[in-house]
Predict the 3D structure of the following.
Amino acid sequence: MVRLLRAACFIALAACGGDDGITAPICTGTGCECTDSACTCAAGVDCKTECGDSACSLSCTNSAKCEGSSADALAVTCNDSSECKGAGGVASAVTCTASSNCDFKLGAMSNATCNTSAACKLQMGDNSTVTCADSATCLVKCDGDCKTTCTGSTECGVTCGVAASPATACSPGVYACGSC
């Protein structure tokens, strides 16, 4: 009977325990700070944010050098003349502005925006979208169906799949891997 009671208590505690499955991000390097799942790196060098299997965000400013990674959704904003790189899972979002330099590999259903004079190198998962505006430079590789829209005086290069086949020009400035 005691064994049965102990087993019932153990099961109840395990079901209602404090582990909610959320892993707090680990942020290392100069200028890197996190509050819950939101991290910032201001004017830092070698700022690295590891989010494990949890969604998180990273904001890089003041010419920071940042790296972020998550197996879940990663949201990155790369401003000023920051250098940002990393990898995110499904539904990740990256925004690179000003004269930032971005290099990311993102999972399916992700979005990336590069504008002003940002330089972006992106590997996008299936059903993802990229917007390249102003005088940004975008090199996009799609690992499945994805669309890239280039406006203004952007320089865009879009390739599809492992063979790096050229994307289909759907209309002026709109490129697709898969159907238009």
